[in-house]
Design a protein that fits this description.
Layout (H helix, E strand, L loop, with lengths): L1 E3 L8 E8 L3 H8 L12 E6 L11 E8 L3 E13 L3 E6 L7 E10 L2 E10 L5 H8 L4 H28 L1
Antiparallel strand pairs: 1-2, 2-8, 3-4, 4-5, 5-6, 6-7, 7-8
Helix pairs in contact: 1-3, 2-3
Length: 168
């Protein structure tokens, strides 16, 4: 797990890795199936492809609905910005030129299985976290730290579920 940055404008990131005793193709089948992601997340409630898309491809869009005790309920439109089957899937949340977040799964063959990492970056575009920072600018570093810790826990849990499903 790695973190960088302390303020929102720094585009702080978090990344978690795991090794899975399964082929990259088997792992890819799970990480590229966005419909399965809400079953592995407390925050993400539902996901659906938009514009007739049926799977990931650069430029494809999907709608995600989320819920958080502190932020309430919201929805976002994400844009696939990288898609290399068996290797990488990344999407920008809301505006792809100024995203509120960027998420990326990266798969690498390793030791007869797959190293899977999930990485996310806050900002630079505004998000729900921006409103919390606006109301308490003196607490910005703590707000960012707490949110990154939440993402770390969530990503760790998601990777564990992907691992269990891929190895089953």
């Amino acid at each position: 797990m790695e973190w960088t940055g302390a303020r929102y404008a720094d585009k702080p990131t978090v990344e978690v890795r795991t090794w899975i005793d399964a082929t990259p193709d088997r792992v890819w089948a799970l990480v590229s199936d966005i419909a399965v992601m809400p079953t592995m997340s407390e925050e993400l409630q539902s996901v659906e492809w938009l514009d007739g898309a049926e799977g990931p491809a650069v430029g494809a869009r999907f709608l995600g609905r989320s819920r958080h005790d502190s932020f309430g309920e919201w929805s976002t439109t994400s844009h696939v910005i990288e898609c290399e089957p068996g290797h990488v899937l990344a999407w920008a949340v809301e505006d792809p030129t100024d995203p509120s977040a960027v998420w990326r799964f990266r798969l690498r063959p390793r030791d007869g299985g797959t190293e899977l990492s999930e990485w996310m970056q806050l900002g630079p575009g505004r998000s729900g976290l921006s409103f919390a920072i606006d109301t308490m600018p003196d607490k910005e570093q703590k707000i960012v730290f707490v949110r990154l810790r939440e993402f770390e826990r969530s990503i760790t849990a998601t990777l564990e579920q992907i691992k269990q499903r891929a190895e089953a």
